[in-house]
Amino acid sequence: MTLKMSKRRPLVAQSEIRNMSIECARQGGINLAQGVCDLPVPDVVIQGAEEAMERGTNIYTRFDGRPELRKAIAAKQNRYTGMDVDPEGQVVASAGATGAFYATCLALLDEGDEVIVFEPYYGYHIVTMASLGIKPVYVTLEPPDWGFVAEDLEKAVTSRTRAMILNTPSNPAGKVFSREELEIIADFSEAHDIFVFTDEIYEHFVFDGREHVAPATLPGMAKRTITISGLSKVFAITGWRLGYAICDPEWALAIGHFNDLVYVCAPAPLQIGAARGLAELTPDYYQAVSDDHQMKRDLFCDTLRDIGLTPHVPEGAYYTLADVTSLPGSTAKERAIHLLDKTGVACVPGSAFYQGPVGETLARFCFAKEMPILEDAMNRLRKL
User: Which of 95, 208, 213, 250 could cross-link with 241 by S-S, CB 3.0 to 4.6 Å?
Assistant: First the structure.
């Protein structure tokens, strides 16, 4: 038989995050591996979707999304970042932030192109590019400060470099890139005439009085930045698959056409629910989300310290990377499995976020859980 799968197949395996989630479910444990965010969905979001279904908003939308959602995204972006966004030509609603990222890669990059990526990275960015024949080139950020300098970027750039990916606040490190760091990135991207693809889905999870700065707002960055975000995290609707890209109309049209090809559209009534949430929830809601997760971060990191798994305290998002070298095992995966076997708490081996050896010393924990579940997890960990 000569039938066979594509050359892409070996590049796209189940992620370590999903692997640990499956192993956790098999053992009946507590899943701090996957960033599900099992918090209550705001009532206005649910009601908006229900009313849309009842009104018959159940058919295809325009390729870039319902006008209510695009207008709400543009208004929210202006309110929180100061960006002046045209909802008719600069917003593309997609099937989650991952959908927006995939459509962006299809529209703006070619096979053989190179993209600079900070590691630790979000694995879906890497696999998406690999499936399209796009090569990631890594700039390694090491704990505890996850810092970089301009020379690090210059060492990574080649004649094939077309873009760089910036995840702020970052998954998994929780790094919030400062304005000064973003200025380095802006100068670099302008000097080498490359795109900057941002993943800003944790923009409202920022701690200790820090500020999320949208890279597109820096001088000279509006044209070359593709701002990608979504509603999965802040509204706790990861299964609704609602994300978006904001960019110059020239890029938005192309991204929208590929979005139409791959996804047709994001779920129509769910777009209305998200639009209602964006329009009606006040800044107090977003601040409360941030404050709640900062409190959980502090409690969880204290637990990790107490059991000898030194945490790298995140500045944002809702994950913490911790040093797990005190656990038995020679790899991060072996140590993560040991922790699950002994405590029933699942984490993700740090090797899922690094190409290099740094990842073998780390594991990622998600603390975006309802308080009783997080308390149960912390109590189990304290028995280690």
Answer: 95
Per-residue model confidence as pLDDT tens digits over 277-300? 999 999 999 999 999 999 999 999
Output the pLDDT for position 19: 75
Verify that 325 and 258 share a domain, yes or no. no
Residues 37 and 48 in one domain: no
Give the pLDDT of residue 14.
66
List the CATH number of the domain containing 94. Answer: 3.40.640.10
Structurally, the chain folds into a number of domains equal to 2
In a domain, 251, yes or no: yes
Query: Model-level pTM?
Result: 0.94
Provide the residue range defining the domain that includes 114: 43-280
Are residues 333 and 366 both part of a single domain?
A: yes
Q: What span, in angstroms and rounded, lies between the C-alpha atoms of 246 and 252?
A: 7
Low-confidence ranges of the chain (pLDDT < 70): 14
Q: Are residues 151 and 269 in the same domain?
A: yes
pLDDT tens digit string along 140-179?
998 888 999 999 999 999 999 999 999 999 999 999 999 9
Q: Looking at the domain assignment, is residue 3 inside a domain?
A: no
